[in-house]
Specification:
With 442 residues, this protein is α/β, with parallel strands linked by helices. The protein contains 15 helices and twelve strands. A hairpin with a 2-residue loop joins strand 9 and strand 10 (271-277).
C-alpha cells in the first residue's frame, strides 16, 4: 500500500446551482489548509475545536475576502473515511462560490483530486476493501431501491464477509496440512483423504452459490435490459410513458412514429429495468424507418426481458403471430401485454400492477442471499470463477489419488483469486481502472 504525501481537494457535490455545495480535502495538510481559508465566528480557531464538529464561520477566497458563510469540519487519520486527515466546507451551492473556494484551497497547497481518488485512498489505507470501494460507485449509480439497498449492504462489508468465510476455510485447510508436514514430531492429527474431500466439496459448493448470484447482482446494479416490441401503433410508446410516469416518447395514431430506440430506467416489481422502446416491427420501404426496425431487432436480441405489446382493440394479424412466434422462440423471458390505446389512462393502474407482478415472478429476489452479498460486476465474477476452478481441480486431483501436498497448489491459486476479489492481491492497473468510473470528489 502506498502512502500519499500530498493533499487533494475537489467539489464533492453535483455541478450546477444547488442548496448545498461541499468542498472536500484529504491528505496530511487537509486540516491546516481548511483552517487557512476558514474563519470561525468566535474566538477559537478551527483546529482548537474538537474533531468531527461542525463550526460556523466565513469562507475566504485566495485574497482573504469573505465569499460565503459556511460550516466546516475536520477529522484526523486514521479515524476518517480515507484513513488520513480530512476536512469539508459546506457552502451554499453556488458554482462561483465553489470555484473561488477551490481556488483558495489550491493556493494553500492542495491539488485537484482525480476521479475516485478519495475512495481510492480509503482502499489504499485499508479503510475499505475493493468490493466495498466498488459498492460506493454502485450506490452512486443506483437506479432502484433494491439496487441502492444492495450497494449499501456491500459497502457495509456483506460480500467481503461471505468471501472471507470461504477464504478462511481454505487457509485453515492449508495451515493444518503444512503443520503436519513441517512438524512431523508434533502430535497433530493428519488430514484423511475423506476429510480433505469433504472440506473441498463444502467450499466448492459455497463458491458455486456465490457465483450463481452474479446474474441477479448484475441486474440490480445495471438493470435488466427490457425491449418493448410490437407492430407499429400497438401501444409501445404509451406503455413506456406509463411506466416512466411522463411523456418520454411521442405518441400518435400514425404508424411508424417511433423511428429509433428510446431508453429509460425504471423500477417495476422491485426489479430495475432498462426499458428500450423500439420502432414498430414491420417491412417498410422507408429507409429511415427500416433502420429503426433493424435496431429494434438488435435490441430484442440483446434483451434479457421482452415485453410483447399487441393492440387488443385491433384485429390480430399475421404480423402479430409471426412476431409472437419469434419472441417465443428467442429463448428469453417475455411477457404478453395487451394494450388498448383508447383506454390507456383508465386501465393503466390495474395493468401496471399485473405487469409488475409478472416481472417480479420472472426475476425473484435471491432468498439465499442478503443485501450486499451478490457479485455485481464481471471482475468479481471472474475472480470467483477462478477460485471455483482451483478448488474443483484440487478435489478432482484428490479423487484421482494425487498426494495432498501436490493439490495444495490449486488451493493456493483459489486463495489468490479470492484475494483479487476483495483487493488483497489485486494489481495496481486493475485498481486504477476500477476507480476511473467514479466521479471527481468521491
Amino acid at each position: 500500500m502506498s502512502i500519499q504525501t500530498d493533499t487533494i481537494a475537489a467539489v464533492a457535490t453535483p455541478a450546477g446551482p444547488g442548496a448545498i455545495g461541499i468542498l472536500r480535502l484529504s491528505g496530511p495538510r487537509a486540516a491546516d489548509i481548511a483552517a487557512a481559508v476558514f474563519r470561525p465566528l468566535g474566538k477559537k480557531g478551527l483546529l482548537e475545536r474538537p474533531v468531527r464538529t461542525l463550526v460556523y464561520g466565513d469562507l475566504l477566497d485566495r485574497e482573504g475576502q469573505v465569499i460565503d458563510r459556511v460550516l466546516c469540519t475536520y477529522s484526523r487519520g486514521p479515524e476518517s473515511y480515507t484513513g488520513e486527515d480530512t476536512a469539508e466546507l459546506h457552502c451554499h451551492g453556488s458554482p462561483m462560490v465553489l470555484t473561488l473556494g477551490l481556488e483558495a484551497l489550491f493556493a494553500q497547497g492542495a491539488r485537484q483530486a482525480g476521479p475516485g481518488e478519495f475512495t481510492q485512498r480509503a482502499f489504499l489505507n485499508g479503510r475499505l476493501d475493493l468490493a466495498q470501494a466498488e459498492a460506493v460507485a454502485d450506490l452512486l449509480d443506483a437506479q432502484s431501491r433494491e439496487g441502492a439497498r444492495h450497494a449499501a449492504g456491500q459497502l457495509s462489508g456483506a460480500l467481503s464477509r461471505r468471501v472471507g468465510e470461504i477464504y478462511s476455510a481454505l487457509v485453515d485447510l492449508m495451515a493444518h496440512f503444512h503443520a503436519v508436514l513441517d512438524y512431523p514430531d508434533e502430535d497433530i492429527d493428519p488430514f484423511t483423504q475423506e476429510q480433505l474431500s469433504r472440506d473441498l466439496t463444502r467450499q466448492e459448493g459455497a463458491l458455486e452459490r456465490l457465483l450463481a448470484t452474479y446474474r441477479r447482482g448484475r441486474q440490480l446494479s445495471r438493470g435488466v435490459r427490457c425491449a418493448i416490441v410490437g407492430r407499429p401503433n400497438a401501444g409501445k410508446s404509451s406503455l413506456l410513458n406509463a411506466l416512466v410516469g411522463y411523456e418520454r416518447a411521442i405518441v400518435t395514431d400514425i404508424p411508424g412514429t417511433t423511428r429509433d430506440t428510446v431508453e429509460e430506467n425504471v423500477e417495476l416489481g422491485g426489479v430495475p429495468l432498462r426499458l428500450i422502446d423500439t420502432a414498430g416491427l414491420r417491412d417498410s420501404a422507408d429507409p429511415i424507418e427500416q433502420l429503426g426496425v433493424e435496431r429494434s431487432r438488435a435490441a430484442m436480441e440483446e434483451a434479457e426481458l421482452i415485453l410483447l405489446v399487441v393492440d387488443a382493440a385491433a384485429e390480430v394479424t399475421a404480423e402479430d403471430a409471426d412476431l409472437a412466434r419469434a419472441v417465443a422462440e428467442s429463448g428469453k423471458p417475455w411477457i404478453f401485454v395487451a394494450a388498448k390505446q383508447d383506454l390507456v389512462e383508465q386501465s393503466t393502474s390495474v395493468g401496471l400492477d399485473s405487469l409488475a407482478q409478472a416481472v417480479a415472478e420472472l426475476f425473484p429476489r435471491d432468498a439465499g442471499s442478503g443485501y450486499g452479498e451478490l457479485l455485481t460486476n464481471a471482475r468479481q465474477a471472474q475472480a470467483a470463477q477462478r477460485a471455483l476452478e482451483g478448488v474443483k481441480r484440487a478435489r478432482e486431483a484428490l479423487e484421482l489419488g494425487v498426494t495432498p501436498d501436490a493439490l495444495l497448489t490449486d488451493v493456493e491459486e483459489a486463495l489468490s483469486a479470492l484475494g483479487e476479489l476483495t483487493g488483497q492481491s489485486v494489481r495496481e492497473d486493475v485498481t486504477a481502472r476500477i476507480f476511473q468510473r467514479f466521479c471527481v470528489g468521491k
